[in-house]
Amino acid sequence: MMTTEPPFDPNAQASEAEAQAAEIETLKAELEQLRAQSLLERADLENQRKRLARDIEIARKFANERLLGELLPLFDSMEAGLAAAAEADPLRAGLELTLKQLHRIAEANGLTEVAPQAGDSFDPDKHQAMSMVEATGVPPGAVAQLFQKGYLLNERLLRPALVVVARHD
User: Fold this and answer.
1) Judging by beta carbons within 10 Å of its beta carbon (0-12, 13-18, 19+), is residue 145 exposed, middle or buried?
2) Rounded to an integer, what is the distance from CA 68 to the centroid of its chain?
3) Cβ–Cβ contacts within 10 Å for residue 65, how many?
4) Residue 4: its pLDDT value, please?
5) How far apart are CA 152 and CA 161, in angstroms?
6) How far is C-alpha 47 from the chain's CA centre?
7) Do 53 and 77 reside in the same domain of the chain?
8) CATH number for the domain including 113?
9) What is the pLDDT of residue 140?
10) Domain containing 44: what range?
11) How far is it, in rounded angstroms, from Cα 152 to Cα 1?
12) Domain shared by 40 and 99, yes or no
């Protein structure tokens, strides 16, 4: 029995090599596309992680906003009580210490006072003008008097300071 080999065809071998080369190029392109997609997904995941961390930080910074906002009338009442109390009143010292301790706790949680003095420039981002008056010694447009302190919570306005502004001549 005689075996016959198919005749040698150089064109068939060349076209098979071209087909394999084309398949390799296709696979390389798919691999590159998958790498690029993987990089995009990693970048997207990293962006989501950063956004979530930022959201958590903001939530943490302002978690006490409601509580501290509800304490503001207490600060006002205690300061009004101190202003009305006589120097010799035995309860005055206790009220002062209590108010200092409350302020210290509030400051530790990011609360700061906005209490402009007469002559300070009016800041519409932190002050609310209640009225205008003629004020000697105070430049026009500046704060002439403080009605009520304002407060910032971590640099965000919680309550504006209520002020009287010197009238322009």
Assistant:
1) middle
2) 17
3) 16
4) 64
5) 10
6) 17
7) no
8) 2.30.22.10
9) 92
10) 12-61
11) 102
12) no
Under DSSP, is residue 145 helix (H, G, I), strand (E, B) or coil? strand
Continuous segment of H or E residues that includes residue 152 = strand 150-153
What are the pLDDT tens digits along the chain (169 aa)? 556 666 666 677 778 888 899 999 999 999 999 999 999 999 999 999 999 999 998 888 888 898 999 999 999 999 999 999 888 888 898 999 999 999 999 999 999 999 999 999 999 999 999 999 998 889 999 999 999 999 999 999 999 999 999 987 6
Whether residues 80 and 54 fall in one domain? no
Residue 138 DSSP label:
S
Say whether 137 sits in a helix, a strand or coil. coil
Distance (Å, whole) CA 141 – CA 132 = 9
Residue 131 maps to a domain: yes
Give strand pairing partners of 165: 132, 143
Number of domains in the chain: 2
Q: Number of helices (H) and strands (E), helices first, in the chain?
A: 3, 6
- Does one domain contain both 134 and 55? no
Q: Is the whole model's pTM more than 0.70, yes or no?
A: no
Are 85 and 152 in a shared domain?
yes
Q: Do residues 163 and 157 touch, judged by C-beta distance below 8 A?
A: no
